[in-house]
Specification:
mainly alpha, 2 domains
Length: 254
């Protein structure tokens, strides 16, 4: 009579383990790249390296004592042009962002040399078109943070994309037999709960800067749950079999 083969990570064959491992490694690299991207898009909003509550506030609520251009030039776009050009643009904004001065004082040339490589239709990026003065002038107005239309666009992308990623990470983790069933269920559900909290807090912070803490809490909790599932899954696939066999059925909570 053939031996029974229960469903758990420890007792799977090399092919399935390799499939799961390849996916987990690629997703982990993607997660790290996302953290780097967050640093460059939000982490420099206050002009200092590292993600802070002020960065969250400036990104979603805005820095309402100044303009979008000024906030960007003092933050994430600070290294995109020389100090002299940066101060010249900020000075132009402070003087009222006049259209005649835009051309007469060389601001148009600064935009062409330092900005339009990305801020133009030819770049293929969804960024404001700085080849047109009216788009530059709009960003010279008071910084009110992310627009509601951009929040809606980013929210639906994150909801679909991140939920899809955690679906497969959670499926692999659900085959871990060494985690108590209630803890396993909580860890599997946690990313979805905190994903909703994270994205909801973007909208709340847009309305009130006091909600910025929720963005950090939601993102941090998602990262913790991802790290826990990743480590446990890799351990049960590759380290645990070297120590002992496992005949438990993870799907039946045995």
């Amino acid at each position: 009579m053939p031996a029974t083969h229960n469903i758990n990570l420890c007792s799977q064959g090399i092919a399935l383990k390799s499939l799961f491992t390849g996916y987990l490694i690629v997703v982990a690299i993607g997660y790290m790249m996302a953290l780097v991207q967050i640093q460059f898009t939000h982490g420099l909003a206050d002009g200092e390296f590292g993600l802070s509550v002020d960065d969250i506030v400036y990104s979603y609520y805005g820095k309402r004592s100044g303009s979008v251009i000024e906030a960007k030039l003092n933050g994430s776009m600070q290294l995109m042009t020389s100090e002299e050009n940066r101060l010249k643009v900020i000075n132009w904004v402070h003087k009222g962002a006049d259209e005649k001065a835009f051309y007469d004082t060389g601001i148009r040339q600064i935009m062409d040399s330092s900005c339009v490589a990305c801020h133009s239709p030819a770049s293929g990026m969804s960024l404001p078109d700085f080849t047109k003065f009216e788009n530059v002038a709009k960003r010279a107005e008071t910084d009110t943070g992310a627009s509601f239309s951009s929040l809606a666009r980013i929210s639906h992308i994150h909801l679909f994309g991140i939920a899809f990623i955690f679906m497969f990470v959670g499926l692999i983790f659900s085959l871990a037999a060494g985690v108590p069933r209630y803890l396993k269920a909580a860890v599997v559900v946690m990313p979805y709960v905190f994903l909703i909290l994270d994205i909801s807090s973007w909208w709340l912070t847009k309305l009130n800067p006091n909600f910025a803490w929720l963005v950090i809490i939601g993102g941090g909790a998602m990262a913790l749950s991802f790290g826990f599932m990743w480590i446990v899954s890799m351990y049960e696939m590759w380290i645990m079999p070297r120590r002992k066999s496992d005949d438990r059925d993870a799907l039946l909570d045995e």
